[in-house]
TrEMBL record:
InterPro entries: GP_PDE_dom, PLC-like_Pdiesterase_TIM-brl. Residues 1-234 form the GP-PDE domain. PROSITE patterns: GP_PDE. GO terms for molecular function: phosphoric diester hydrolase activity. GO terms for biological process: lipid metabolic process. This is Glycerophosphodiester phosphodiesterase. Pfam families: GDPD.
Length: 234
């Protein structure tokens, strides 16, 4: 299985509605997006802590209200053709994924100063309000606290623990988070680590692999899902 990372950033601005649509057009069945809270606690779609890279604004996302974010352009930085791309809120992304029949891997993105429980609570509220189908949803995060709160509020939602390290406690992760999946940086995955994770019955995903010629190697290792910026190249 393949997941379109932030949409398809090799062809469209990341974490945008246009990127979601294009990924679906190019055959994606899974899409990964990042969510954070605005200053007024509205879940929005964006990866970075700062607005500087992927919008025409500056400063920290969490210091801006939704009204301020909606004034920004999230496409022009990428290509003139995408000028006027509106800053997306999570509700819009959920509706678009439903319309396109995409399975969503939604990463709860946290930075120093962010409140993991508040983000989890607002995301769960929105999932309930929009009646997003749980069989089309995976909530993932580097934050164990965020995932534990998701489990408390919505036990049936699938949870994915993300790590760029191999020294985390697998048993503790299984006991506290009860993950559906574990997502590792592909550069740190070894056959031994893959065996240990797969031996628990948990789904194994890797990120972010942009070399199609290596896909077979990782699938043979036991990887179930490859997250990539280049969904159209695999």
């Amino acid at each position: 299985m393949l997941t379109a990372h932030r949409g398809i950033p090799s062809k469209a601005p990341e974490n945008t509605l246009s990127g979601i649509r294009l990924a679906a057009q190019l055959g994606a069945r899974w899409v990964e997006l990042d969510t954070q809270l605005s200053k007024d606690r509205i879940p929005v779609i964006m990866h970075d802590e700062s607005l500087d890279r992927t919008t025409n604004g500056t400063g920290l996302l969490r210091e801006k209200t939704l009204d301020q974010l909606r004034m920004l352009d999230t496409g022009e930085w990428y290509k003139a053709d995408y000028s006027g791309e509106l800053f997306p809120i999570l509700e819009e992304a959920l509706e678009e994924c439903k319309r396109l029949n995409l399975t969503l891997n939604l990463e709860l993105k946290l930075y120093p100063g962010s409140d993991p429980e508040a983000l989890a609570e607002r995301v769960i509220e929105l999932i309930q309000e929009t009646e997003f189908p749980l069989d089309k949803l995976l909530l993932s995060s580097f934050s164990g606290d965020a995932l534990i709160r998701c489990r408390e509020l919505m036990p049936d939602v699938r949870r994915g623990f993300i790590s760029d390290r191999t020294d985390f406690s697998l048993n503790q992760t299984l006991n506290e988070i009860e993950p559906y999946s574990i997502h590792l940086d592909h550069r740190i995955l070894t056959p031994e680590i893959a065996r240990d994770i797969k031996g628990t019955g948990v789904v194994l995903a890797i990120w972010t692999l942009n070399e199609p010629e290596k896909a077979e190697y990782f699938f043979n290792m036991g990887v179930d899902n490859i997250i990539t910026d280049m969904i159209d190249q695999f």
